[in-house]
Amino acid sequence: MSLTITRLQPDSPEAELAARWRYDAFFGDSGETFEASRAALFDFLRRHEGYEIGLLAVCDGQPAGLCLFVREEVEPNPRPDLSPWLAALYVAPEFRKRGIGAALVRAIEAHARKVGTVTLHLYTSEAEGFYARLGWRMAGRFVQAGETFALMARDIA
Q1: Residue 18's domain is classified under what CATH number?
Q2: Of 38, 32, 17, 49, residue with least CA distance to 115
Q3: Which tens digits make up the pLDDT trace of 94-151?
Q4: Sheet (strand 119-124) strand order
Q5: Closest by CA position to 88, among listed 72, 112, 77
Q6: pLDDT tens, 58-68?
Q7: Which residues fall within 8 angstroms of residue 157, CB to CB, at 6 or more apart?
């Protein structure tokens, strides 16, 4: 298996696919339209300040997954004191169970370290065990829109 992780470019065909993945996995039931979700992702990817970033995993020449490093994640933010965030980790079903999710998490952690992050945060409703195996710790729980989420953190400095 050949795996590469690169910066996701907003004008690439892979960005269209990533927008669909992100919407279907995280926003499809939210009432937000695909067009609005796509526009938000593309605006995010066009910011070239070097801090926030979107990463794409390519496995054997095929787009396989996505992960973002963002300043703010939860809206409304229950903990505005927490930043930055690992967000929108997604691996396409046909590429799961190959270590791609872990590789994307490690790449985001490396980027976070590079830009001076001490503690990285994320939230999840379904993958608490996955992140715990990668060294993330439980930092609390919160409820949003009737769903309970695990708030997790990882010290990376």
Answers
A1: 3.40.630.30
A2: 49
A3: 999 999 999 999 999 999 999 999 999 999 999 999 999 999 999 999 888 788 999 9
A4: 3-7, 53-59, 62-70, 85-91, 119-124, 147-155, 137-144
A5: 72
A6: 999 999 999 99
A7: 113, 117, 118, 119
Q: How many domains does the chain have?
A: 1
What distance in Å separates the CA atoms of residue 67 and residue 108, rounded to the nearest whole number? 7
Enumerate the β-bridge partners of residue 3: 59
- What amino acid is encoded at 157 in this protein? A
DSSP letter, residue 114: H
Distances (CA, A) of 66 to 1, 51, 78, 137: 18, 17, 25, 22
Beta-bridge partner residues of 85:
70, 121
SS3 122: strand
The whole domain housing 91 covers: 3-155
In angstroms, the CA 12 to CA 6 distance is 12
